[in-house]
Write a structure and sequence with these properties.
Blueprint lengths: L2 H59 L3 H5 L2 E8 L5 E3 L5 H9 L5 E14 L2 E14 L2 E16 L2 E11 L10
Parallel strand pairs: 1-6
Antiparallel strand pairs: 1-2, 3-4, 4-5, 5-6
């Protein structure tokens, strides 16, 4: 094999190596862009879910059943802290409004998203800590609850499909009083 042939083979080899390197670089850039898009979509979804939680708190604190129920799907299941299960919750806004106008009229809530777990890109389990303060005469009562919701996404809109409110109970360790 003469020098000219060896040079041509080396040149072909270098072109192939260059192509392989370029393919790897562009593939890495493509994956990186896809990952950035996924992260961006997840952050957007988390913000939309958080806005639903804020909407519920706003509805509660302004004593508007309509505002509170806005993030719920039309066929949502709503389980209250006593275990009572309301099917098709938003249709029960009238009952919620009655609570706001009577027993809950002096209550205020704060909701803090504890965790959002995406089961699929369009389904999330959302855990929220709720704190309620109720003023009755000269006294103020407070309590905490853990809210678990299943939210579903249609288009760019997240809705609450299922809602469970469970009181957080304080327990004393054995030997403490």
């Amino acid at each position: 094999m003469n020098v000219s042939t060896k040079f041509k083979q080396a040149k072909i080899f270098m072109k192939n190596i260059t192509r392989i390197i370029l393919v790897l670089i562009f593939t890495a850039i493509g994956i990186s862009a896809q990952e950035k898009a996924k992260i961006s979509d997840k952050a957007k979804d988390e913000a939309l879910i958080g806005a639903n939680v804020e909407q519920m708190a706003k509805g509660w604190n302004t004593k508007s059943g309509v505002e509170f129920a806005q993030p719920f799907s039309k066929d949502a299941d709503y389980v209250v802290n006593s275990g009572f299960d309301i099917k098709g919750f938003p249709s029960s806004v009238k009952g919620l409004q009655q609570l706001f106008d009577t027993t809950e009229k002096n209550s205020m809530v704060t909701y803090t998203v504890e965790q959002i777990r995406f089961l699929r890109p369009d389904v999330a389990v959302v855990h929220v800590i709720g704190e309620m303060k109720m003023v009755q005469g000269d006294s103020t009562q407070s309590g905490k609850g853990r809210i678990t919701m299943v939210m579903t996404k249609t288009g760019d809109k997240w809705e609450i499909a299922a809602f469970q409110n469970t009181p957080i109970q304080e327990f004393e360790a054995k030997g403490e009083k």
